[in-house]
């Protein structure tokens, strides 16, 4: 049995836990990111009535957000890899918080498209910066859990938005909702700049915690791969393909779920809060639970390959019942189906992000995250146009849910072909 002062004990019980404070900051940033992102979906029925938007107008507004998101993801990854997460994250949240507040001062679909474009550029850096931070601050055995926790911020943001935004809108008008939520980002920015430093430079990191953080350094090269060469690597294509196929399902939740509840069950700004909160509470559980599952399997002796793919398969199977959501006769039956799918997507994402940290050198993590995120945003652009036109012509979400039910299983099959063994850095 190892003594309390042995190296093994130090790695198991570090005397500081700064990495989890960093994880909490990443969680809060992602929460704010999703509040700013989802507010347009919550206000869709209100803005359509007050400003006279059509379904195609709204689809175009979402399209321009995702176009900017794709462009920003391709650009921000190499920048963050070069300048680091401290400055990269600060610049990103400053831009997207400014853009969020700008929505309060526009009135036309063109104006909203411009504000959403700026928002997409800023928000695109969130996950590349966050996952690079996790890769730098956590050993492999903790990364999926850390990614799950920060990813849970998306669900907390999605829970908070239908509570806070209707209250602000009813009391002060929809403009106030954009201004107040935008200000939150600047509060986080001050905290980030005051506290964040890289692990090797952070004054509060103990020697034992630094040893834990660096436990996998020998098995994962730190040197970055030239950006163009990343497009010739299997891990890049595996991640990008999975994001292209599955991210549009999450965008469907963010931008159209309130509208689905409004059309299908006649809910409004005052009444769709509880169903949305229920969906995203389940998504929160899925985000942390999915990350916990693969981390627990690794701790119990499974290979990284088996642990990650088992968790991804479980999540993919749990999305399949979304096929029946549009035909559910009762509101809460639909909420249960949609909540299960949302939980599965977030668990899927937690493990997908961990796969990047398993297979890509530290110096290229943000770049690969950016490439994959851009692929997901392009998929979301296609989804925005498809849903808008489907609703305009058919008035039904059923064709969209049919597609969503199979996307994850197809993505996992492609990932398995491209990455038959996950566990070693495969980018060369």
Features:
428 residues; mainly alpha; Growth Hormone, Chain: A; 78% helix; disordered N terminus; MFS_trans_sf; transmembrane helix; hexuronate transmembrane transporter activity
Task: Please tell me about this protein's structure.
The chain has 428 residues and is an all-alpha fold. It has one domain: Growth Hormone, Chain: A (Up-down Bundle), CATH 1.20.1250.20. Helices cover 78% and strands 0% of the residues. Helix 7 runs antiparallel to helix 8, helix 12 packs parallel to helix 16 (365-393) and helix 12 (234-265) runs antiparallel to helix 17. It starts with 6 loop residues before the first helix and ends in a 10-residue tail after the last helix. 55% of the residues are buried. The model is unreliable at 1-11 (pLDDT under 50).
What is the CATH H-level superfamily? MFS general substrate transporter like domains
Helix content: over 70%
Largest sheet: none
Number of separate domains: 1
Return the CATH class. Mainly Alpha
Number of helices: 17
